[in-house]
Specification:
The complex is a heterodimer. By secondary structure, chain A is an alpha+beta fold. Helix content of chain A is 64%, strand content 12%. Chain A has 2 domains: 13-51 and 152-324, Multidrug efflux transporter AcrB transmembrane fold (Up-down Bundle), CATH 1.20.1640.10; 58-147, Alpha-Beta Plaits, CATH 3.30.70.3400. In chain A, helix 6 runs antiparallel to helix 7, helix 7 (180-204) runs antiparallel to helix 8 and helix 9 (246-278) packs antiparallel against helix 10 (284-303). Chain B is α+β, with helices and mostly antiparallel strands. Chain B has helices spanning 6-23, 47-60, 84-95, 112-116, 126-129, 140-161, 184-197, 220-244, 270-278, 306-312, 349-360, 422-433, 454-504, 511-540, 545-577, 581-612; strands spanning 31-38, 64-69, 73-78, 100-107, 123-124, 131-138, 168-172, 176-181, 201-208, 211-218, 251-255, 259-265, 282-287, 298-303, 314-318, 323-324, 328-335, 341-347, 366-382, 388-405, 413-416, 441-449, 508-509. The chains are: A alpha+beta, B alpha+beta. Chain A: It holds the Pfam family SecD_SecF_C. Chain A: The chain crosses the membrane at residues 28-46, 159-176, 183-204, 210-231, 252-275, 287-310.
């Protein structure tokens, strides 16, 4: 209530376009972001990610049918019996099937460690008991084995290291092209988005498989893209707009790019909704991760990156280019 | 104003034409087919085999399109995917299992003129089309044996150093070291030395009189650890090899205690895949034996090169191995002054140290490079209960590829010469780079597997992608009208170019991959959205239409470049550091960024220029 005095002095219109006072809510937004990130980290630490079959390995069951079954039917039978997340493929011939079950299912079903060979054996018998009644001929269990993950440990370790390295290079590039305060903003926004997407998956205990990993990587690209577009406008306006405070310039810049931010997010979301609603089970989690990522990414390009700039006290002087560079920019095609 | 020079239009046309050409093969759905080839490569399959196969299909009532007799195999095209497995079974039964290999395949329907240009469709991943499944067993006995052999050498050296004179030190049954001594004091000295130097060995004493023994072996725990290490190491190596081969989206996973599953997408030439996966080449460096070296400490090896073998036969090398291929961190093909292929090797620091220690006091002596190839031959034996069991018998082929005089002490970097051909150098470098197998492996089984997704899932996946695309097109049209049309054309061009480049690179398409492509398309409109909103802004500021177009494109340019380059950096790093699926995604993302920049900046501009350029325009439909 005490801050109303500055209200009437602020720029509310610039170049014929309404300027929204985004930064007025920046403290609230910061609080919201911090709460979300802390909640995500807590979920990640407490629940952990529920890694899918690709990461964990599981139980592999080979069954032989007397009469060749339809693969779709077998999948449905397994689903109905509570073995979700199973993959079923023809193995060598059309009356032999290879069924892979994730360990989580095995654990729920037997209450024993999935690594236990005997436990696996009993899973095999149970699966056959589910499948046999549906087939007119005999169904027999050929083999049950424990399989390791598709993805090596080294991918997880290298992946983590790679991410840190990628962040460092991006920071360097942004610092070079813009200014180091921008690179801090971009990287904080990026970390914010990725942590929240991961936290979302940890909280709801959704399957984190290779497709979701791909989605998280895409979120990185999307988040950066969005942040840089806003940052670019802020840089431009710091050089162009004469009489305005840093806060006003950021407000102007976000308002100017708002249309574009919504349009791009909207078209991307259109694709994702289509994948989500019509795409079937396999890409469900992929699109979900991206939907969360795009929504959070859009929010963070407005309220996280710009917020960090404000907090670091960005000023006109930070962005005044050396004279030469300005001359070059004029000549750009 | 706003006119492009002719060459720019031409450039765009050429790029689009190339894109269409190389993307086109993806429109021709391959026919499901059955491939029949001889069990051995010397066998030819001809028209008579095709006739028998067709007759077999007629009998079970499976329709077929027709067969082609090729150089090495027959391709028999079928009407539907569902017929493949029954057809394979019928033909295999008719032809018999001993002489012919019947495999599923996909027969290309790409027209000849396209294939002649080198255009080929993208391969489909394991989830969409299935592939081949190999089960391999790691020969863990060998790893224990080689480890114990290493211990024999080390034990001898330590005993000599401690002056515990032994009568003999031998390896018994591949698992136990037996050291023999003449007296109590010598044996006690040996036991205390070994206990100190090799705490991991379990020692037992035995024998009597002149023949006192110390038996040393590894604990069960220790052996398990070795085996674990070997399987994990092989797993990593296999992953690297498959990745080096450029087979995208493979599955390599451990199964049970000592088995590894490899699944490769697409039913390809299984013989070729087997050759690379199963290759257990390794290297060893040993000094040439001095003429006075005892026979027990040296071994005779032949040259690998035919010519050298005829001239010199072979050479005696020491039994002691300086280093093996597992110390190699990098291996690249190069050429020496006279154009002969060589492999430039970099060792890890421990390897460099060992190499240095071995060579600095042996300048002037010759050092041999041994090339080791392992082969497994199945052998049928009868076990104690009278059942026939198949045992994989392993033979190691060790041959000298070079024997060169040590000119000076070697360090971490040196080269291997004496290779037969560039292809051989290439293969050796690949195998060394991808890492040596810690233990040999052999194939236990080989099967063709169906798609893991099922037709229903694929259908809905593809449908959702189409709906998403359509929604974006409609949305752009509603928002930006004439400019929306331009953007949509650019989007279509982007899609074609993306598919074309991925086809040229031989990328493998999976369902998440398709979704990824669509996502890049969703994001690709961003560049156009940026440009168009900038044009609208300039118009609102009162700029005349033509200048607004120019200003819009120019001002948005640096934003687009900055945003895309940052993302590209991430993609490149992901590619460099990630492996397998992460790399595949990074490639799609990078290509998507580049093609979208081309189509959204140049393509859209060209269309807009063509439409509005060089005339008076009162109002822009944007």
């Amino acid at each position: 209530m005490s801050e109303t005095k500055v209200e009437n002095e602020k720029i509310t219109e610039y170049m014929g376009k309404r300027v929204y006072d985004f930064m007025r809510w920046r403290k609230l937004a910061a609080a919201v972001s911090i709460v979300m990130v802390v909640a995500s980290l807590t979920a990640l630490v407490m629940n952990g990610l529920k890694f899918g079959l690709d990461f964990t390995g599981g139980t592999q069951i080979e069954v032989g049918y007397e009469i060749a079954p339809r693969i779709e039917d077998v999948r449905n039978q397994l689903d109905a019996a509570g073995y979700s997340g199973a993959t079923v493929v023809n193995f060598g011939s059309d009356n032999e099937l290879l069924i892979k079950l994730p360990p989580a299912v095995t654990e729920e079903q037997t209450q024993v460690s999935a690594r236990d060979e005997k436990a696996s054996q009993s899973i095999g018998d149970k699966v056959v008991a589910v499948l046999a009644p549906a087939s007119e001929g005999d169904v027999d269990l050929r083999r049950v084995e424990v399989v390791g993950p598709q993805i090596g440990e080294e991918l997880r370790d290298d992946g983590g290291l790679g991410m840190l390295f990628a962040l460092a290079v991006v920071m360097a590039y942004v610092a070079l092209r813009f200014q180091y305060k921008f690179s801090v903003g971009a990287v904080v926004a990026l970390a914010h988005d990725v942590i929240i997407v991961l936290g979302f998956f940890a909280l709801l205990q959704l399957d984190f498989d290779l497709t979701v990993l791909a989605a998280v990587l895409a979120v990185i690209g999307y988040s950066l893209n969005d942040t840089i577009v806003v940052a670019d406008r802020i840089r431009e306006n710091f050089r162009k707009v004469r009489k305005a405070t840093s806060e006003e310039i950021i407000n102007i810049s976000i308002s100017q790019t708002l249309g574009r931010t919504f349009m791009t997010s909207f078209t991307t979301l259109l694709v994702l909704w289509a994948l989500q609603f019509f795409g079937g089970e396999l890409i469900h989690n992929f699109s979900l991760a991206l939907i969360v990522g795009v929504v959070v990414g859009t929010y963070s390009s407005v309220y996280v990156a710009a917020n960090v700039l404000m907090a670091m006290g960005i000023t006109k002087e930070d962005l005044m280019p050396p004279v030469k560079e300005g001359a070059e920019l004029e000549e750009m095609p | 104003m706003n006119r492009y020079p002719i060459w720019k239009y031409l450039l765009i046309l050429v790029v689009v034409a190339l894109g269409l050409t190389y993307a086109a093969p993806n429109l021709y759905k391959p026919d499901p087919a059955v491939q029949i080839s001889g069990q051995s490569s010397a066998m030819t399959v001809g028209q008579n085999v095709l006739d028998r196969a067709e007759k077999a299909l007629d009998e079970v009532g499976i329709g077929y399109v027709g067969g082609e007799v090729g150089d090495k195999a027959i391709l028999l095209r079928l009407n539907s995917m569902d017929d493949q497995l029954p057809a394979k079974r019928a033909i295999q039964e008719a032809l018999g299992h001993s002489d012919y290999v019947v495999a599923l395949n996909l027969a290309s329907t790409t027209p000849d003129w396209l294939s002649n240009l080198g255009a080929s469709p993208m391969k489909l991943g394991l989830d969409l089309a299935g592939g081949v499944h190999f089960l391999m067993e790691v020969d863990t006995n060998t790893i224990v044996k080689t480890n114990m052999e290493g211990y024999v050498q080390d034990v001898k050296a330590k005993l000599r150093a401690a002056k515990a004179r032994y009568r003999s030190v031998d390896l018994v049954d591949d698992r136990e070291i037996v050291a023999r001594f003449r007296g109590d004091d010598l044996r006690d000295l040996a036991v205390s030395t070994m206990r100190k130097e090799f705490p991991q060995l379990q020692l037992t004493e035995g024998g009597s009189g002149d023949n006192l023994e110390v038996r040393a072996s590894l604990s069960e725990q220790e052996i398990k650890q070795l085996e674990d290490y070997a399987v994990t190491q092989n797993l990593t190596t296999l992953r690297n090899r498959v990745n080096e081969l450029g087979v995208a989206e493979p599955i390599v996973q451990r199964q049970g205690r000592n088995r590894i599953v490899v699944e490769l997408p697409g039913v390809q030439d299984t013989a070729e895949a087997k050759r690379i996966i199963g290759k257990t080449a390794n290297l060893e460096y040993r000094m040439e034996a001095r003429p006075d070296t005892l026979v027990t400490n040296k071994e005779y090896f032949e040259y690998r090169n035919e010519q050298q073998r005829q001239m010199y036969g072979g050479a005696w090398l020491e039994r002691k191995v300086i280093i093996k291929g597992d110390r190699v961190t990098d291996a690249r093909v190069g050429y020496d002054e006279s154009g002969f292929p060589q492999v430039n090797i970099t060792l890890d620091s421990r390897g460099g140290e060992l190499m240095h220690r071995a060579t600095w006091k042996n300048v002037g002596r010759r050092m041999g490079t041994l090339f080791i190839e392992s082969r497994f031959v199945p052998e049928t034996k009868v076990d104690a209960e009278g059942n026939e069991i198949v045992v994989q018998k392993r033979t190691d082929d060790r041959k000298i590829i070079s024997l060169a005089t040590v000119q000076s002490a070697l360090g971490r970097q040196f080269r291997i010469t004496g290779l037969d051909s560039a292809a051989e150098a290439q293969e050796l470098a690949l195998l060394l780079r991808a890492g040596a197998l810690a233990a040999p492996m052999y194939f236990v089984e080989e099967r063709v597997i169906g798609p893991s997704l099922g037709a229903d899932n694929i259908e809905v996946g593809v449908k959702s992608v189409q709906i998403g695309l359509l929604a974006v097109l409609v949305c752009m049209l509603l928002f930006y009208r004439v400019f929306g049309i331009a953007a949509n054309i650019a989007l279509a061009v982007n899609m074609v170019l993306l598919v074309a480049v991925m086809s040229i690179l031989g990328a493998t398409l999976t369902l998440p991959g398709i979704a990824g492509i669509v996502l890049t398309v969703g994001m690709a409109v961003d560049a156009n959205v940026l440009i168009f909103s900038r044009i609208r802004e300039e118009l609102r500021n009162g700029m005349p239409p033509q200048s607004a177009i120019t200003a819009g494109f120019d001002n948005a340019y640096s934003t687009i470049v900055d945003a895309n380059i940052t993302t590209l950096i991430v993609a490149v790093i992901l590619y460099a550091i990630g492996s397998g699926p992460v790399q595949g995604f990074a490639v799609t993302l990078s290509i998507g960024i580049l093609t979208s920049m081309f189509s959204a900046i140049m393509g859209t501009r060209a269309i807009i220029n063509l439409f509005y350029g060089g005339r008076r325009v009162q109002k822009l439909w944007i």
